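Lecture 7 notes: from sequence to structure.
We start with the chain below.
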Amino acid sequence: MLADRSSGLWFSIAPVLAGFAVLSLAGVAPQLYLVQAGSLLLAAVLIWLGARSEGDVMPGTLQALACLLVLLLGAPLLAEFSTVSAHQPQRWLQFGTLQLYSGGLILPAILVLVAVLLQQPASRAAACGILLAGALFLALQPDAAQLLALTIAFPLLYLQACRPGVSAGWLPLSCFVPLLALCYWALQQQDGLQSVPYVEGVFALAFSVAWWCGALIIGAAILLLLVLYRQSLLDQPWLAAVAVYYAVLYGGSVAGATPAPLLGYGAAPVLGFGLMLGLSLWLRQRV
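Predicted structure tokens for the same chain:
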């Protein structure tokens, strides 16, 4: 499915397999295995489609796609007008009985799109608007962990947009101030959600079983980060910022403050990884 220089991305399956091991350690119901397996299958389809897609990117396509994803990221806030308590975080997209964590599903793909748009002088204003809109939605949900990961990853996106002898301009640089302000505000908000061992507490759960279980889970996380960074050096430079994004979330999960993407239970992070990687493979030969 992935050829040539992208073959190393196959190793990104390691954290997903580790996630199934975490579910086994937690003794979860069989239905959760089915959800995780179905998510992995759909993610593989997204990656395959991205790797096999042909044709040029039409003008305005990336801006339109990024705007659509940002609107989906903010869609959970509509629950404020429903019967859901306004005192609970609003982070989930509802599809019948299925709930998908909006940040884990959408934000990795937004990072890729913002990175590409920042490299195009005519699209930098759109990239900044998309970035700040996404940050605002995350702050209002509130989702401090995802917003912190976005804020820490953004400087790398900015530096990548600064090519030798060419500055990315003052507009992207000015995004740092509102990003930091929104991040600070979100970190002051009460979360109100209890940590789940096989979602936010995967590292603690693994170490509670045996030290080598914990070491394997940490190894799977590090392997994912190395795979993404290596690929960023080859043909998809924006994956370095995605690696930073995942590293921040893994750090937060060590403290039980946020889900550990791919390493724990959750359909949205698996689908979000597939969407991000499929989009990245689609764009690598077109920008």
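Points to note: The chain has one domain: 4-81+90-283. Residues 47 and 278 are 4 Å apart (CA to CA).
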